[in-house]
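Re: duplicated header lines in exported structure tokens

Our pipeline writes sequence and tokens for each protein into one text file. With two proteins the header for the second block appears twice in some exports. Here is an export where it did not happen, for reference. First protein block:
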Amino acid sequence: MLADFAAADLGYGDPSGAPAFRLAVTRWLARNRGIQADPAEVIIVAGVAQALAVLARVLGQAGITRIAVEDPGSLGAREQLRAWGVDTPPVLVDDAGLVVEHLRRSAASAVLMTPAHQFPTGVVLSGERRRELLGWAEDGGLIIEDDYDAEHRYDRAPVASLRAVAPERVCYAGSVSKLLAPALRVGWLLVPSRYHRAAVLAKRDTDLGNAVLPQLVLAHLMESGDLDRHLRLVRRRHRRRRDAMIAALRRELPEARLQGAAAGLHLMINFTDGLSDVDLAAAAFGRGVKVQPLSWHCQTPHQPGLVLGYAATPVRAIEQGVSLLAESYRDLQPAGE
């Protein structure tokens, strides 16, 4: 494959990314997310984390230093924004997704959210909430759409991207982290036209652009159909692992309320008995089982729960892990219960 590259392909190039990869990304997004974009609009970044860093700088220059976030919502994303001096007021998420009325009350002029498969609850932003949110954006708000795992769905039809319907009100970020591996550190960013030049300059000033070779390899995977075939393969594998985790939870931890099973790479469970999810996660970790307490991802008080990933774990290990998690849960119950 390297023999096909010209010397010019291996120079510093455009800080926005290799043209071949940006073209491949637009075609991928059109096929999988219904987003129509020109390759010139795409900015290749080192994952969604760098997309947020670029946006924090660009929006800060535009006077936007307060970006609302979902609650519960990704701890990592919140920390990334705060590292760049951004205030992150919480906005409640319920069974229909982000509560837009609470967003209005936050007085934030931008919001970071995961509408297709909310992290960590797994809920999908309802049609009514989407209309309310887009109305808020038309009134001057800016939506940052983190489309982190939208390709992975099992029991429902795909949910349209917000970027596809309101490109001048939505900054869109995605990556290959959930498609292939987080370690590749490759993602993409689309911004409204008024922010594009500033975003390219912010990317250039950060690192001159992503490494070219991974981009050209990924472009080949996308254009050849290999990445689509890989996605179909891993969907089947993830479905088996998800089903194994659901069955094990129902058998071993019937007390838990399960959420977010229709799509994605994780499940969330809640408990109603006042148990500390931090203590439960620590006890499970002592048995060799790694889970995340829901409270890590909350800025306001919330029912205790756990976030359980299944995509990288074989079925037998999932079953063993849930059994050990249940043992940890029982050990933390008061004597006599």
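Second protein block, exported in the same file:
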Amino acid sequence: MKSVRIIGLGLMGTNLGVNLIGKGIKVYGDDINDFAIKRADKLGIDVNKTHDEVDLTILAMPINKIISYLKDNKKLNNTKALLDIGGTKQEICDLMDKLDIPSIGGHPMCGIADNNAWEPSPEIYEKATFLLCETKSTSEDSKTIISNFLKLLNAEEVWIDREKHDEIISITSHIPHLISSALVGIARDDYEINEIMGMAAGGFDGATRLTRTNPEMIIDMYDTNSKNINKFLKVFLKEMSEIMDLQEREELIDYLSSSVEWRRALSDKFGERSLS
């Protein structure tokens, strides 16, 4: 792989570009935001819109902007393969099915809690799980391009069905965002911030850090995955109701113990992520 074009120069796109530049790849970039373009230019990304064919084009915009971009596929040219890195996959991959350019849906499982203001951190892609969804337009050549791309990032290649992706991500990402926001809402409505700050230990910090994420990005996730979110939100509320019904001490200890055992097994297998 020699060249990549990244469309969308926010947190994920710019850090991806800087990472690839460090690996000797020529990176072109584009964005509708002048500040983002100037920042990318200073970091070594070529923002000249005129260039020869690239090996891979990456759509690194918010989910709904990716969908709009794919619907206007006349813009897609001069590339051997197309990859998006949006947080939901069903609607995006359905559009990719119809493209002439070999396309793959992607979702790197990395990022920063507060993605509104940030310093360059291209290392976020290193050793990250990178979920991939095949589409009807995917070719063997495009799979090879993506595999080589992930080797450059030192990321883990994991293929998954688009429907299964959105189902699981609603549990592991979208519902946690709702819970995080709800906890902040309770604290915000019932207590002064100085009261909370004086008594907010690691539990509150860890459980609410997702609320720092840019709301527009989260809204896009809900817009494109509401069916799964609503389904599992009902399951979550049922689970909370069942916990409330555990009146006996031993019942509660058994429930908590099984949860602790499962969560520690997760940490043993995948390690523990920093909360910062």
